[in-house]
Design a protein that fits this description.
Largest sheet: 5 strands, antiparallel
Structural class: alpha+beta
Mean pLDDT: 88
Number of domains: 1
Strand content: 25-35%
Radius of gyration: 16 Å
Order of helices and strands: EEEEEHHHHEEHEH
Helix content: 25-40%
């Protein structure tokens, strides 16, 4: 079973049909942007593990409120990206923090909690992407969604991915 989970305007995952191989197509969207536009083939076992760790981190509230209180999300993204505290970059880096792998290496993304909601920021940085999408240059995309919805999408993704050897997750 494959399909779209979530809302592309906020956060969504689309898992392609599996053929039992170790690789599978996974497309990610944040704030209406196709994140995996450069590489959407994941190594299932590694990706599933990263998604599972992310869901567990969000459930356990590891993603506490950001250190720069009162800033709009795009400004927060810029400060984190500039390295205003290396620990903060590591603490709030979304894909980097939980090791989502090469499919997300083309973006810088941060995630933090704002009450019961999550804020996700995204910026494309590769020159090849910016040449074909100049409107994305220096643009920080922002998505907000309930933390519970985000975790549910991740858990459904893990189930659909199965074990990486053609079997559904248990």
């Amino acid at each position: 079973m494959a399909g779209l989970l979530g809302d592309k305007r906020r956060f969504a995952v689309e898992v392609g049909d599996g053929d039992g191989s170790a690789l599978r197509r996974v497309d990610l969207w944040i704030a209406g942007q196709w994140v995996t536009c450069e590489d959407n083939m994941v190594f299932v076992k590694q990706f599933r593990s990263s998604v599972t760790r992310t869901a567990a981190g969000i459930r356990s509230a590891e993603d506490r409120a950001p250190p720069f209180v009162g800033l709009p999300p795009a400004s927060m993204h810029r400060r984190l990206q500039a390295g205003d505290g290396e620990q903060e970059y590591e603490r709030f880096g979304f894909f980097h923090r939980w090791g989502w792998g090469p499919t997300t290496d083309n973006v810088t993304s941060f995630l933090w909690r704002d009450g019961v909601r999550l804020v996700i920021t995204l910026e494309f940085w590769r020159e090849s992407h910016l040449l074909t999408h100049p409107e994305h240059a220096e643009t920080v995309f922002v998505a907000r969604l309930p933390a519970a919805e985000f975790v549910e999408i991740l858990e459904e993704t893990v189930t659909i991915l199965g074990d990486g050897e053609g079997a559904p997750a248990t």
